[in-house]
Amino acid sequence: MYRTVPSGFALGAALVALSLSAASAAEKLTLYCSPQEEWCQIMVTAFAKETGVEVAMTRKSSGETYAQIAAEKDNPKGDVWWGGTGDPHLQAAEEGLTEPYTSPLQGELHDWAVKQHEAADGKTVGIYAGALGFGYNKELLAQKGLSEPKCWSDLIKPEFKGEIQMANPNSSGTAYTALATFVQMMGEEQAFEYLKALHANINQYTKSGSAPIKAAAQGETVVGIVFQHDAVTMAVSGAPIEVVSPCEGTGYEIGSMSIIAGARNLETAKKFYDFALRDDIQSLAKDAKAYQVPSNKGAVPPPEAPDFASIKLIDYDFATFGSANERTRLLKKWEDEVNALPH
Predict the structure, then answer these.
(1) In the beta sheet, which residues pair with residue 227?
(2) How far is it, in rounded angstroms, from Cα 272 to Cα 198?
(3) Of 9, 180, 207, 340, which one has the greatest count of Cβ atoms within 10 A?
(4) Do 313 and 250 contact (CB within 8 A), yes or no?
(5) Whole-number percent of the chain with pLDDT over 90
(6) What is the pLDDT of residue 261?
(7) Nearest to 133 by CA among 230, 12, 267
(8) Residue 35 DSSP code
(9) DSSP string, 260-295
């Protein structure tokens, strides 16, 4: 039996092909994305076009993404977690599910984005900010003869029974921000009494944080408790949505980005991380009708974006409420004492 030995030229060509194949394999990225689908797609398209990197993207809410990364910790499949509320990013950092990286663009970021990075020992960074609030369907409100809600306290009035949606805080970072906001504003005991009263008026707890305002825009519910920028998205799209910044004050999120510990494509993950912090890339948010406040000082927020200076914001304690113990404890308490109640 004879075996053909490749010529020097053929062998060299084979080695070059093998080398190119290896380089191509290295230039891949698995992205876990938590903001709205449209923004995720814009980021993927822009990054792939600029770099030639092949991106596999999965879109899930913050709580779901955290759970997936935790479940995959012994065999990580993702490289970067982009977006979603900061609390689960901080918990992931505390639990060693993400790894530290400091971008050369760090100096271009707002202080609140840098503080997020410092709080996580470099394992996450702020990429946008968004204030909690709610929105309501003006036409549906008028049809039902309901008074205009302006405060958190209005949402527990009997007239709103069955007229409100919010997400489940176990799957949604938006809803967990609401839970943590109420605890910080009212104290834990009063906050849970409020949540029980609110529960009586909830018609559905959704999986996604932005789903309640989409339902309100479609006339399926009167009120949706969401981040204000998600309500702005619906209003700009032509839905009869009124955006409310609650009179008592409100909490806010620092949408964050983290590199997953054990990332298979670490250098490409860092490349995406730097890309996502650039001012020109953050300015693309408007193309996805995403109205969060960007973290790069040079990025231009859309004119429709909520003005943080005009919103009564609480001094949200990200370190405490992003910690694994506190977040786990509050979520279990909400499940046991609120979600378990009958409607």
Answers:
(1) 132
(2) 41
(3) 180
(4) yes
(5) 89
(6) 98
(7) 230
(8) S
(9) ETT-TTHHHHHHHHHHHHSHHHHGGGGGGT--PEES
CA distance linking residue 107 with residue 258, whole number of Å: 18
- The answer to whether the CB of 33 falls within 8 A of the CB of 79 is no
Q: Which fold has domain 132-252+325-339?
A: D-Maltodextrin-Binding Protein; domain 2 (3.40.190)
DSSP one-letter code for 54: E
Buried b (16+ CB within 10 A) or exposed e, 93-118: bbeebbbebebebeebbbebbbbbbe
Residue 39, pLDDT > 60, answer: yes
Q: Which CATH number fits domain 23-129+253-305: 3.40.190.10, 3.20.20.70, 1.10.10.10, 2.30.40.10?
A: 3.40.190.10
Question: Would you call 253 exposed, middle or buried from its count of C-beta atoms within 10 A (0-12, 13-18, 19+)?
Answer: buried
Q: How many CB atoms lie within 10 A of CB 189?
A: 9
Average pLDDT, the chain: 92
Rounded Cα distance, 201 and 193, in Å: 13
> How far apart (Å, rounded) are the C-alpha atoms in residues 234 and 110?
27
Same topology, domains 23-129+253-305 and 132-252+325-339? Answer is yes
The answer to whether 246 and 152 are in contact (CB under 8 A) is: yes
With H, G, I as helix, E, B as strand and everything else as coil, classify residue 70. helix
Bridge-partner residues for 241, per DSSP? 137
3-class DSSP state of 329: helix
Give burial (CB, 10 Å; 0-12/13-18/19+) of 342: exposed
- Please tell me the distance from the alpha carbon of residue 227 to that of residue 129, in angstroms, as a whole number: 10
Higher per-residue confidence, 308 vs 258: 258
- List pLDDT tens digits, range 58-90: 999 999 999 999 999 999 999 999 999 999 999
Instruction: Give the single-character DSSP code of 154.
Output: G
Whether pLDDT at 97 is above 90: yes
pTM of the model: 0.84
The answer to whether the CB of 32 falls within 8 A of the CB of 78 is yes
Does residue 16 carry a pLDDT above 80?
no
